[in-house]
Structures are given as structure tokens and as C-alpha cells.
Write a structure and sequence with these properties.
heterodimer, A: 428 residues, alpha/beta, 8-stranded mixed β-sheet, 7-stranded mixed β-sheet, 14 helices, 33% helix, B: 606 residues, alpha+beta, 5-stranded mixed β-sheet, 5-stranded antiparallel β-sheet, 20 helices, 16 strands
Chain lengths: 428, 606
Amino acid sequence: MTSKTTPAKNVIVRMYNVGFGDSFLLFFPAPDGRTRKVLIDCGVHMASTNKKALGMKEAVAQIIADATDPDGVPRLDVVIATHRHRDHVHAFEKPEWEEVEVKEVWMPWTEHPTNPKAKEIRDSQSKAASRVKKAAEKKFQMSVTAAERKEAEKAMILASNNLVNKKAMAMLHAGFSSQKTFGKRRYLPERAGGESFESPALPGVTVHAIGPSHDPKVISSMENDSEFYHLMMTHFDSSEMKTQPFRSEWRIPRRQFNANAKYKHLALSENEIKAVSEFNSVDAFGAAAKVEGAVNGTSLMLMFEIGSAFLLFPGDAQWGTWEAAMENEKWAALLEKTTFYKIGHHGSHNATPVKFVEEILHKGIWALACTGPTAAWTDIIPRPKLMKKLREKSKKVVRSDKADVPDPTTRDFKREEDNLYVEVEVRI
Amino acid sequence: MKENIYARMQPERRPLRIFAFDPMPGRAPDQMLWRASDNRITIDVVNEEQLAAGPQGARIEVVDYDGPNDCYYTPVNLNDPALLMQDGLEPSESDPRFHQQMAYAVAMRVLENFDQALGRKLRFRRNFKSRRLRIFPHAFYGANAFYDPQQVALFFGYFQAEKENPGPNLPGQTVFTCLSHDIIAHEMTHALVDRLRRYFKEPSNVDVPAFHEGFSDIVAIFQHFSFPAILRLLIQESQTNLRQSAPLIQLAQQFGYATGRGTGLRSALEKEKPDPNLYQTVTEPHNRGSILVAAVFDAFFMTYQRRIKDLIRIATGGTGRLPEGDLHPDLVNRIAQEATQTAQSTLTMCIRAFEYLPPVDITFGDYLRALVTADLEISPADEFCERAAMIEAFRIRGIYPDNVTSLAEESLLWERVEEKWDDFPDTLNAWMRDQTIIDAQAFSRNAPLPRYNFPDVAKQFATWARKNASRLNLDPSLAINPLGFHPSFRVGPQGQLLVEMVMQFVQTEERTRTDDEFGGVPFRGGTTVITSADNTIRYIISKPLASKGLSKDKQAEARLRREKQLKFVERSDIYDTALVWYDQKHYQTRMAQRMNFAAMHRRIHP
């Protein structure tokens, strides 16, 4: 295998075992003989429970070490944050990145600092996330049974993945070393339908920015995006929940009402009272799951083309982005050429369309899932059915957290001794 | 001296005051014509002599329990002489008793519209003890309201208006959904649709939830037209072009503004020209339902224009161009009458179609067929071309029924059978005769509601259906669930009485109840049978299961429908980005959850 000092012949993809999160370091051969390094995401979800995984601190140290050139300076040609979720950007809050020379930083167009449409999407998503988090915390405090507590906890974990990680985002937007000389930011795709380009930071590689769409509906996979946020506003502002709609003279306490013979025909039973009060608890968990999905929808979907290698990194893109890609003639043709697939959203059900696996993907390609056990979703993500379908398509399906070797005869695969990362070679 | 019988007679109607729309009109700057008093109108509902405090009547009861504050509010007693003298309480946002009165009055109005159109009095089945639908005007905190089928109750929320951009509302003011005529009518219609077709709350195809929403909006919108004073005002304001009258065509304006939309919650009109693509692409139930609403409203408007054409000709000396400025009040009056009658006739047509719907898996196309068939039965002449307008309005929105070769009226009709079946058991014949008399009596004033002797008769109906399974497009190897059988009385425009018997049977492919692929909404089939008073089978309206006894075509149709349902599950799943975080238990019932009205509210799935 290629080490970081000897020039690469093929593309090397290194997947770090960060637990339930994403982190990939790519080594590209270049015409000038100097290997180019691209980091895609670095973060872990609050829900991750993999004790054997790299902690964020260790992960950062490892990546910086792997990116350090013989002159002792850590250099990354491109850093890519697919979307702003904690499990993709968390590690960028570490100050160690200040030492790393970065030529370009790529983010989805929704991160554009001055584009008003981007700002609107960011604002409504983060506002919703913080409201849901508050509602979940309140639910947690008020929960009586263990089941209620667990439900509220799940909602809190989910909601916190969506909170804005200001430090990490600041690093991505304005941090890293040698800001003045390099540090170009690209917000992709720049055009509504996506684009293909070559970057001076990555000579010899054609980059195809397929998604996210510029249409908010496609991004959130919701037909009525604004409707969703409207309801969010009125339901989840917990500070407003204590409202007395009428003057006290109209109020009759429950006991007094039940005891009044005049009103006997209207008195509710205990069970009926309980049923009514259930409608008063907001479903923080469901709302958190919705926001999570909407932020995933802003994921960058990229294809790197070099020689005969086509590496597809869809981030956590949801059905909306996939559908738009598969319906676009140019992108559909490109997807068919995939020789390496980063399994979307840690292997969940709607981040990899069935049609893509069954009809578009070729046999025998590499498919890597950066994933791991979680507080409540171990049996659901990665989705067993999806993994099985992928394995039917190819023997080269790899998980970051499992010590499985896809095909013992393959020489393009390496697992680090302590399982800190796995590495595959994609032929160009 | 013997008392005169007229002196003892109870009044027929009970006048009650309500907000015509919601508390907002009169506050909005674009409605300078409005005085606050214009918005306070008196409507009348049937006088229930036994009306108790609540109000609690024979079919509806208002229980004003406030969930978040765990207290009741003083129930209104509408038989209090002080209130009887002044048409109930004065409209007021701060008196909960007025809220109870308005919820009761509007809900009763909806109920009466259904009674009249269907020719029978619907009752609810809350439990063994009670046959009343419950209304909670202040059940929870939140910008929503919903019908809960488990409790057979309507729940209304209250909330504070947006602090930024609340429209004509005060920032942060409390907004009551139970003071919106449209929201009450909408939720009440959900309850009635569920009462008439309980399986329409199973989302077996993309049209089912959309139908529930769209139909509820239709009833809410057409009820606007039954308030003459308001109508006159709006005809004057819009120079007879009711399409441009925001209060009439927008739903729940205060709610819309209070939640920061800057407009009503929904509208009966499309923003642009009707687009047949929408029906192919829009899936969100409320938005898809709006296509249905737009079609029906469009048909109404065409008929309305046809009906006032002569009046406009008279008023303009034949030019058809109305002069600028105010119209003559007599003209406004006459036009308002036409608008009311057209609206009532459209609404009746829409509700009446229910008897001709299959018991499961409705599509908009089925609804069009039912509309056309039901209307043809009662009014073959189509004097004002209402039916033709309806077909045209559906056509330009790309709504075509399956298995129909053209959109000509005769091909849209459900297939006529017209066969006399002589194997109907005598006991059932006798029961149906009795029932017809009982139901007819129910229409006399203040008659007690009839009670049916259900279980025995149900069994006999099922036995009969099993014997005739293949003729009824049912599968004899599966259980047949008789859902309902009732007579219906209708009077046509020429005064002719039409008495029909309606029966519904439902079957379920058992395996699909627990099949993950179906997600908790099993694959069902069913048949609605319409017979005339002399036991002649007139229509067999069915959604068959693939039974071996059926024709090849019917079997193919069934298989296609099953495939369609599975595709709908698949499609709903890939769009449901939240699904990935739910556990297996939720996964197994995910389709059923997607149309649980209460859960839709809790899951803020608007």
C-alpha cells in the first residue's frame, strides 16, 4: 500500500473509525507527482456509543499526522464539510486545525455567508433545532416514567446534532493556517442544476457537484417546508405554554365541576381527562427527527472523476437530492459509472435509494459505511436490508466499526492494526 | 277553555349568534367596507328542545375542559330565557360560553347540511352509552385543531399569535381555533366523513388523505355562502365577482395571519391557471386536497355565472358591463339569492355523492363518478349544467377516473345493473321496510332518533352477500364485513321522491395486516350496493380483491390496486426523512400513523 510519503498510483480512501459519524481522507495521484490530500468531514454524533472508536481529539491528531508532509507541515489541499451536522463537522472546533495549511474549503451552497436564500434555510433550520431542543429538555424534566425519560432523551440527542456548531463553522469559514495565501472557499453547487469543474488544488481530477438542489422543497424532501416551520414556531415555544385564555371567574376547577349536580352530564372520566392531556404534550422526538432530515438534505453530493475512477460521496443526502440527480440525464449517466460509493447517512434507509443499488450500481465496486453502534438506533442504522442488498451487489462492502475483511484475496484493502481506520485503493 | 294547539308548539328553529368567519374581519385594513358588526351574524339551527347546558344536544355535546390548565369553563345554557331573548350570547372573544355557543351552532349547521343532502339523520357512535360527538373548544395549547376517531371528538387548540408579522392580529394575542367558522366546519366534516366511510382514514392511496382534507374544506367554504347578509356585502364589494372575494374563498384567515403566513390558511382557488400536472405531482394531503376544492369551486363559479347572466343583462341593458360604483341593492339581493342557491346545490351534490362511493380506497376519480351518478339519479335534466361544469372542472385539472374510456357523462356513471334479485330473505325485506318507516319518521320534528337492531341483521346481510359473492365482486373465501345498510330519502328538483337502500361490505387480505411492507394499512376490498325500494339492484360499486371467482379484468384490476398501494408505501417511506430514527414498532404501523389525525397534530405533520 501507499504511504503518505510515496506518490500514489491510484486513489486511496482512508475511512477513520470515528464511531457514528463521518471522516474520510483521500489521496489523489497528480500529474506533477505530488499526491493531493482531501479531507471529507470529521465529526461524531452525540448518540455514538462505540468505545473503541477514535475520540475527536485522537481523530484530529491522527488526521493531522497523516496529512503532514516530510517538511513537518500538515497540508490539506481541500477540506470538505458536506453539511453542518455535528456528526460531520464537530472535530473542526479543535484549535489544532489552525496549524494545517488548507488550499480550499468546500461547503454546500446553503452555507454561503451572504446568499439570502441560503441564510433563510440556515436560519429556519437552526431556529427549529433550538426550539425542539428546548421542548425536549422540558419534556425530560417533566417526565415521570422511565419510558418517558428515555423518549425525551432520544429527542434531546437528536436535536443537539442539529444545533449550530459555531466554533467548527468558524474554522471552516475563516480558519486553518495560511488564510491569506490560500483559503479559497467554494459553496457548491454554484449553479442551480449543479456543475463540473477542475480546481487548481486538485489537478487532474474533475469534480462533479451534483447536489444539493437550490430548491428548498427538494432539500427538505418536504412539500410544505414553510408550513412545517410555522407549526414549529407555535408548538415549540415552551415559554408560552402557560397561558390563561380567560378571566378566573369562568374557570371551574375539575373537582368542583364534577361535584356540581348541574354539570354532571358533562363531567369527564379520569381516562378521558388523560386522553385530552396527551394532546398537550408536543412530540419533540418527531420534530427533532424532521429537522435532522431537513439538515441532511443540505448535504453536498460530490463525484470525483480521475481516469476510470468515479468516487461518489453523497454525504447524508436524502431522497430529494437523489431523485433530482437520477432524473437529470447528465448526472444519471455519471452515477452509473460509480466505482466507489460512500454509503449515504451511515447506511440509513432513505439515504441510498433502492433503485440506485439494484439498477444503477455496478457489481464489485467499493462501498464504505462510516458508522457504528448508537444509543437507540443500533439495529436500525445501518439498515440491515440495505447492507444485505449492497453485499449481494459487491463483496467489497466495508463498515468502519466492524473488523470484517470483505474479500480475503483482495490486496487493495488494509485495516489499521487497532482498527483506527481502513484504507482501500480505487484503480484509476 | 281548551288551549290552542299553536300556542303549545315549540319553535322550529333556534337563532344563535356567531362570528361569520372569525374575530378578525373588521380589523383588516383591506376590508374598509367592513364594520365589526358585519362580522357578527345570526344563524339558525334546528331547535332541540332537550338542549342541556354545555350545550349538550341529541347528537353533539360541547365539553369545555381545558387540558393545559386542568379546569372546566362555565357551560352555556342556551335555554336560559335571557339568552333565548337575544339569540344567544353576543359574539365575544373573552367569554368562553360564546365559544361553546359558536362551536355548537356551526357544527349543527354542518350536520344539518349532511342530513338534508343524504336524506337521513346521521348519529355518532362514541361508545355504548353515548351517541354524541364531543367538542372540546379549548382542549390544548397549539395552533391546530383535529378530529380524533378513537374518542369521536373534535379538539380545538388556542395559541398566541406570532410576535412578528401577525397581520391584523395583535402581536402575541390569544387566537382561538374554535372561533373560526372554517376550522369548526372543517373538523366537523372530518368526523362526518369518518362516520360515513370509516376506512377513508387508512391511507391506501395518495388520494385518500387528500380527499379527507379537500372535502372538509369544500364544506367549510360553501357554508360561507349560506350567510345572506355577508354575501350581499361581498357581492357589492367584488362587483359580483366572488372569485376575488378573499373572505369567501380563503379559509381560516385569522389562523393564517396569526401563524405568520400573511394570508388565509388555504384558498379555494389556484394561484395560477389550473395545472393538470399538479394532480400528478402534489402529494401532501392538504395541498392535494386543494386541487379537489379548486375543481368543485370552479364548477360552482361557472354555474353561478350562468345563473346570474340574465340579471346582469337586465341591469345593464344588455351590455353585460356593470357600471362603476355601487350596485343597486335589489340587484345585489337577487344575485345573493342565486349565489346561495347555487352554493347550496353544489354542496348538496358533493355530500350526496357519498352514498355512491366504494367503502374503501377512494380516488378523486371515484369521487367524480359518484358525483355524476348521484346527481343524474336525482336530477337527470341538469337544468343549470351543474354536472357538466363539474366534469369540465375536474378534466382541466387532470383528474380522470381509472377504467373509464372517456369523460362523457354516460361513461363516467357507475355501471348500472338493474336486476331484480329474488333471493333476498323475507326477514331482511321486513327489516328494511320497518327501517324505511323509522327513518322517515326521524325527519318529523323533534322525533327521537331511531335505534337499529344491528348485530342480527348484520349477520343476515353477510350471509346474503356470501351467497352472492361473485355477483357482488366479493371473495367468498374471505370474511365479509357488513359495514352498513340504510335507506336514504331524497327529493329531486322536480319534487320527485327517490328512496334507495345502500349497503356496504368490506373484506381484508388477512396476511397484509401484519406485513411490514404494508405498514399497518392492510389491503382491503369492498362493495357498495344500491338498491331501489322494490329490491332492484341498481349499482354495484366495488373495489375487488383478486378473487378467483371474478372475471380476468376484475382480477387484474385488483392486482394493480394492490401494487399501487405498495408503491404508495414505498414512496411515502423515501420521503419520510424522519422514519429512520423510529423503532421497529413504529415501522410496522407507519402507514396507519401517517394519517392518524391526532398524531399528525402531535408530530406537527401539517
